[in-house]
Write a structure and sequence with these properties.
This protein is of the alpha+beta class. It has one domain: Ribosomal Protein S5, domain 2 (2-Layer Sandwich), CATH 3.30.230.40. 32% of the residues lie in helices and 30% in strands. The protein is built from 4 helices and 10 strands, in the order βββαβαβββββαβα. It has a 4-stranded mixed β-sheet with strand order 1-2-4-3, with helices on one face. Strands 5-6-10-7 form a 4-stranded mixed β-sheet, covered by helices on one side. Strands 8-9 form a two-stranded antiparallel sheet. α1 runs parallel beside α4 and α2 packs parallel to α3. The protein is globular, with a radius of gyration of 17 Å.
Length: 201
């Protein structure tokens, strides 16, 4: 009798440059546990809830040149997270591929749709007014998801349908992305190979 035990979908990625040293470990079949240290408390908070709502086990450690600004750390964490996702998914056989979620956060309402297509594209429509939350530059939220989508090779549409509080709006987008991604990476026993008429993703 063949074993039905599924191999854990796990990946570890490290990126070292003159600007940052980033380590990311991702388990797609986790329980939402996280250990995050980026030097940016708001980003730590976003990544913790990303792990919790995606039911991913996630470890992120970044030593970056925050004395310059937060750009390099945010970008390189996103690159590593995208690469870890791509590696953990592997050949994409049996995955649902598409995912979507609508998440409210008080007055904010956020929608995310994702396709693990092998092609990167980002649409980001989140009209925030605040420029910084702690030492995190709010404009870098879009750059984070663009870098993630490019590294993960996915289509990612992020919209905040309404909202006034910048913290709520960004938190809603991270939660919605996690939930959409959780759906997209889910394995469906009815799918033979990959879910594409091309035969590959």
């Amino acid at each position: 009798m063949k074993s039905t035990k599924r191999t854990t979908r796990l990946a570890e990625v490290r990126r070292q440059t003159k600007e940052t040293d980033v380590r990311v470990k991702l388990n797609l079949d986790g329980s939402g546990k996280s250990t995050i240290s980026s030097g940016l408390p708001f980003l730590d908070h976003m990544l913790e809830l990303f792990a919790k709502h995606g039911l991913f086990d996630l470890s992120v450690n970044c030593r970056g040149d925050l004395e310059v600004d937060d750009h390099h750390s945010v970008e390189d964490i996103a690159i590593c997270l995208g690469r870890a996702l791509s590696e953990a998914i592997g050949d994409k056989k049996g995955i649902t591929r598409f995912g979507d979620a609508i998440v409210p956060m008080d007055e904010a309402l956020c929608r995310v749709v994702i396709d693990l297509s092998g092609r990167s594209y980002l649409i980001y429509e989140v009209n925030t007014k605040r420029q910084r939350i702690g030492n995190f530059s709010v404009e870098l939220a879009e750059h984070f998801w663009r870098s993630f989508a490019e590294s993960a090779k996915c289509n990612l549409h992020i919209d905040c349908l309404r909202g006034r509080n910048t913290h709520h709006m960004l938190e809603g987008t991270f939660k919605a992305t996690a939930r959409a991604l959780r759906q997209a990476v889910a394995l469906d026993p009815r799918i033979t190979g990959v879910l594409s008429t091309k035969g590959s993703l």
